[in-house]
Amino acid sequence: MKIVKVLLAVGLLVGNAGVRAESSGKPIDIVVHRSPTCTCCGKWLAHLKENNFNVEDIVTDDVQGIKDKHGVTQELASCHTAIVDGYVIEGHVPANDIKTLLKTKPKVVGLAVPGMVNGSPGMEMGDTKDPYKVVSFDHQKQVKEFNSYEGTK
User: Fold this and answer.
1) Distance CA 76, CA 113 (A)
2) What is the rounded CA–CA span in Å between residue 51 and residue 48?
3) Residue in 87, 64, 147, 83 with CA at minimum distance from that of residue 113
4) Does residue 3 form part of some domain?
5) Which helix (H) or strand (E) holds 102?
6) In sequence order, which residues have a C-beta less than 8 Å from that of residue 5 and are 6 or more positions away?
């Protein structure tokens, strides 16, 4: 929550969930690998585009191969895997968390939102949102909380 409070203070987050950033500066290039059958991935791509990301969308039947190549474990896995500035982004990670990662440049492999969490970007279904955590992971398979989001009923 500390990251969210800092970003709110500097005006990088808007809205109560903090998942939409103000567009400014050069677009951020991101490559997303996704299955041709996944519908939520397209919604996450739209979320990224709304937040100043330039998305290269690669539809593949071997998303698992991409996960394996980049060290995404079964515990971290979701439906799509992205690469941005050398970092791995697994699942429905909010755009602002990706921007924070790119700004702070921690020594991690990347960020993940494991599973398919209702209410995370691209997984919006009605007014109910489940609480979830964005985690960072490193080459030693250590996982740490990067940010967290409260649920709503």
Assistant:
1) 7
2) 5
3) 147
4) no
5) helix 95-104
6) none
Residue range of the domain that includes 133: 29-149
Contacts of 95 (CB under 8 A, 6+ apart): 19, 20, 21, 47, 48, 50, 51, 52, 53, 121
The residue with tokens 């996944």 is: 38
* Residue at 66 is within a domain: yes
CATH number at residue 98: 3.40.30.10
Closest of 143, 15, 26, 23 to residue 90, by C-alpha: 143
Reported pTM: 0.83
Question: Does residue 84 lie within any of the structural domains?
Answer: yes
Q: What is the pLDDT of residues 35-62, one digit of tens each?
A: 988 878 889 999 999 999 999 999 999 9
The answer to whether residue 47 is domain-embedded is yes
Q: Total domain count for the chain?
A: 1
CB-neighbour burial class of residue 96 (10 A; exposed 0-12, middle 13-18, buried 19+): buried
